[in-house]
Specification:
The complex is a heterodimer of chains A (about 500) and B (about 350). In chain A, about 30% of the residues lie in helices and about 25% in strands. Chain A is α/β, with parallel strands linked by helices and about 500 residues long. Chain A folds into three domains: about 1-235, 3-Layer(aba) Sandwich (Rossmann fold); about 245-330 and about 420-499, 3-Layer(aba) Sandwich (Rossmann fold), CATH 3.40.50.300; about 350-415, no CATH class. In chain A, strand 9, helix 6 (about 170-185) and strand 10 form a beta-alpha-beta unit. Chain B is an all-alpha fold and about 350 residues long. Chain B has a domain at about 55-300. Chain B is built from 14 helices and no strands. Classes of the chains: A alpha/beta (about 500), B mainly alpha (about 350). At the A-B interface, helix 1, helix 10, helix 11 and strand 20 of A face helix 8 and helix 9 of B.
Chain lengths: ~500, ~350
């Protein structure tokens, strides 16, 4: 029985079609994957279903009746719940308070917290969640926060649950637990829509899969009748080689050495604790870990963006721990930041402006402090061509580019500076499969050319294929180091357990 | 998508014009509710601003200090700072220019006028650098410090005036500055001087500065994102100090041109709040140099027209102030205005798919 039918949903943003007449049928009680690359229109479609965007065209039928969902509260009223990629929780409130927020049990004008706690415990037990209703959300793990989000939706009597890239923040083990929860929800008669761009997960968890590409639906298939290879082809529109060739090559001399580095981060109340790390020429050193275990601090202390408490950073036998970011860049260090909007790109400025970011005082882009636009323009054209950045022109603002092309812009800018050391943090985050393949090959080419590369990534596949050595970080420390790890080993180490 | 930039500018202009129209409409309601004739009021407003050669000159005259204070706020904003202190910086500029002009009574005009002008810019700049330095050094929020420094600046200049430079008489003011330090009149008997070209020249320079220089690039990078600027090796603290220096200099020039062009001396409490109107001018001009020029023209016209409205239609100046306030309100709330002419406005900021 069809519980939900989306008919010809169309949505445009500033002339860009995010959803082009998409039809989607969801059966009651199934797990339905919505698969597609970044920018394919998955989240937009679901945000329309959840009432966060209004569609420019099309209709939604729920249980055979046409409904108009103008805002999220309406969607919730109709039994639709959405768990967003970025959790919508109040850190300082308790689990129970978060779950009931918006429809609190009341005693007169007062909040009946006792009843709230009881409700949370009952519904938690029903689905086998172990959650302390009184714990503050800021003190629980990301996996637990996700369960809070799920309970929040269930507490509002959701029959249809939309999960937007739910595994992006989880370890492999936590992801397994999530899949178990999804199965339990399914056996309880809930319908689940699972947004993802990861093929493995799709195959593991879903009954049926709908693939979107460039805002259009490609097809809906039964999971049992398809394969990751077929799905990849549907997503990208051409054959994709999911493996890259990494030639064996002994690394050269040590280029960057980090010794006993400690740095406290007052925001996360965590920091680096005596980190040691050496990168050689022509070597990729991978850093694994669940986000928030010190990777950001490694990235930023090495680039001089964060103060250190003790220890040293040496580049070619020169102590650079007191050098400014500008000096480090001059010495040949480049940086692909983990957060391209907070660090890497001036979003509302043109592509040209972004391509000279960090070089705006250097020849040939500037002479005596005056920008030389002909030089900037021709260089920009070169970078756009060389790194296959798809854009209407170099004067367009960065905002108009897709995530993958924005990332190529950052990578192109940084790798073109003839670097000695490359700090690449999450280089393929939010990037489509085609571009991932391209970026991986670029990094390997840099390795060939003898550059020293630190690769910080949450994608274990990426780390395992590209790295010559992998370090695992946990709570600000490096707890394991070695040339090879199995995925399950990495997962355990990332969760803090010893092998 | 070609020409997206021009599209944005065009929509800015439309939004501003609609904001002005709504403000004038609500102002009309207010005028008629208060028992005055709307037609009469707006006619004398328009005539007062643009009705004759002399009136246009008055509009331009009112414009000059607003150009500079508007630029002052806009410069700081380009670097992500809210300079609420243009008023205080302007007083220092005025005193600086007056003192230097009076100190060299023998100097020829080609020397004395530029030097007095520079002295005003320098004095305003120094007063602007202080909150910039405090922000860079300790993170003291510039809104708080600049507001406070307005009081200090206004009273400190008055104190210096009374202690060292006061001309004997009933009013706290300096002697008249020498002829050589005065801006020549552009149109006889209108008090409009060549100072307006200094304003346009500074706009031209700033436009080039922000578009074509590495330093201007760095300032704007800090204004857009501290994090990105740091990443690129730009020192945000240095840029904050520099932008407050430039911002203070522009505000100082507002005082200088008042002293050297209109008042011909420093007088205590000479400003009706040019520094604060400058904030509105910058907002309306979208913090762009040429936008500031257009916005200053509007506010100059409202000011000049308001005077004639009071004189001939006997409508109190306060109503003019309310209309000015309404313009700012609607400009500052672009969403409201966009609703009027764009059907589908997506409020949501996140579009991450």
């Amino acid at each position: 029985m069809k519980i939900l039918e989306l008919k010809n949903i169309t949505k445009k943003f500033d002339g860009i079609t995010a959803n082009d007449s998409i039809c989607l049928d969801i059966e009651k009680g199934e797990v339905h994957s919505l698969l597609g690359e970044n920018g394919a229109g998955k989240t937009t479609l679901m945000k329309i279903l959840f009432g966060m965007y209004s569609a420019d065209g099309g209709s939604i039928r729920l249980n055979g009746k046409t409904v108009v969902i103008s805002r999220p509260s309406r969607a919730i009223g109709l039994g639709i719940g959405m768990i967003h990629q970025h959790f919508m929780l109040v850190d300082r409130l308790s689990v129970a308070e978060n779950i009931v927020a918006g429809c609190e049990p009341r005693k007169g004008v007062f909040l009946d917290l006792k009843k709230a706690r009881k409700n949370v415990r009952i519904s938690g037990e029903k689905y086998g969640f172990r959650l302390d209703p009184d714990a503050k959300v800021e003190n629980i793990s990301v996996g637990e926060q996700q369960r809070v989000e799920i309970l929040k939706a269930l507490y509002r009597n959701a029959d249809i649950l939309i999960l937007d890239e739910p595994t992006a923040v989880l370890t492999p083990q936590e992801a397994e637990e999530l899949f178990a929860i999804i199965k339990k929800l399914k056996s309880d008669g809930k319908t689940i829509i699972f947004i993802t761009h990861k093929l493995k997960e799709t195959m593991a968890v879903s009954d049926r899969i709908t693939v979107l590409r460039d805002g259009k639906k490609v097809d809906t298939v039964e999971t049992a009748e398809t394969s990751p290879r077929k799905l990849a082809k549907m997503m990208v529109g051409r054959e994709v080689i999911l493996r890259v060739e990494k030639p064996e090559k002994p690394p050269g001399k040590a280029v960057l050495t980090v010794k006993d580095l400690s740095a406290f981060n007052p925001v996360s109340r965590l920091g680096l604790k005596k980190i040691d790390l050496t990168v050689h020429a022509g070597e990729i050193v991978g850093i694994a870990g669940i986000e928030g275990n010190g990777q950001l601090e490694v990235e930023e202390t090495i680039m001089g963006l964060r103060a250190i408490d003790s220890g040293s950073i040496t580049l070619d036998n020169q102590d650079i721990s007191r050098c400014s970011t500008a000096q480090r860049r001059k010495l040949g260090m480049v940086h692909i930041p983990s957060d391209r909007f907070r660090r890497g790109l001036l979003r509302s400025r043109s592509i040209e402006h972004n391509i000279i970011l960090g070089s705006e005082w250097l020849r040939p882009f500037a002479k005596k402090g005056l920008l030389s636009f002909p030089a900037i323009e021709s260089y920009s054209r070169r970078i756009i061509d060389e790194f296959q950045i798809r854009c209407p022109g170099s004067k367009e603002t960065v905002d108009t580019l897709s995530g993958g092309n924005q990332q190529k812009l950052v990578i192109g800018r940084e790798l073109s500076r003839n670097p000695k050391v490359i700090v690449a943090a999450q280089p393929t985050r939010g990037v489509d499969i085609g571009a991932i393949e391209y970026i991986h090959n670029l990094l390997l080419r840099m390795r060939e050319q003898g550059r020293a590369i630190i690769l910080i990534s949450a994608e274990l596949d990426e780390l395992m294929t590209l790295s010559d050595r992998i370090l695992v970080m946990y709570e600000g420390k490096i707890i394991a180091e070695g040339p090879h790890f199995a995925e399950s080993e990495l997962g355990l180490l990332m969760a803090g357990s010893k092998l | 998508m070609i020409g997206r930039k021009t599209y944005i500018r065009f929509s800015d202009l439309i939004n501003s014009l609609i904001a002005i129209a709504i403000a004038l409409f609500l102002g009309a309601l207010l005028i008629s509710v208060s028992g005055y004739s709307v037609a009469n009021a707006y006619e004398s407003l328009f005539t007062g601003a643009f009705g004759s050669f002399y009136n246009i000159a008055q509009t331009l005259l009112q414009m000059i200090p607003l150009i500079f204070t508007g630029l002052s706020v806009a410069i700081a904003f380009q670097c992500g700072l809210f300079n609420i202190g243009a008023e205080g910086q302007m007083y220092w500029g005025a005193l600086g220019s007056a003192v230097v002009a009076i100190a060299f009574p023998e100097a020829p005009p080609v020397v004395l006028l530029p030097i007095s002008l520079l002295a005003g810019a320098a004095a305003g700049g120094l007063w602007g650098v202080i909150p910039g330095y405090l922000k860079a050094r300790s993170g003291a929020h510039e809104v708080v410090t600049t507001i406070m420094m307005n009081y200090i600046g206004i009273f400190a200049t008055t104190f210096l005036l009374r202690t060292f430079f006061r001309e004997p008489g009933p009013i706290d003011q300096t002697r008249m500055i020498p002829e050589a330090a005065r801006f020549p009149e552009l149109i006889p008997y209108t008090r409009l001087t060549w100072a307006i070209f200094v304003g346009i020249g500074v706009i031209l320079l700033l436009d080039l500065f922000f578009k074509k220089t590495s330093l201007g690039y760095d300032l704007r990078a800090v204004g857009e994102s501290n994090g990105v600027a740091e990443y690129a090796g730009i020192n945000p603290k240095k840029m904050i100090v520099i932008s407050m220096l430039l911002s203070g200099m522009a505000a100082g020039l507002a005082g200088s041109t008042m002293v050297l062009g209109v008042l011909h001396r420093f007088i205590t409490n000479f400003s009706p709040g040019y520094g604060f109107v400058g904030i509105a001018v910058a907002v309306l001009g979208r913090n762009k140099p040429w936008g500031v020029l257009l916005a200053a023209l509007l506010f100059g016209a409202l000011e000049a027209g308001g005077i004639s409205m009071q004189l001939f239609a006997k409508i109190p100046m306060d109503l003019m102030t309310i209309i000015q306030g309404l313009v700012i309100l609607f400009v500052a709330a672009p969403y409201l205005v966009q609703r009027v002419w764009q059907k589908n406005v997506t409020i949501s900021v996140c579009r991450d798919d």
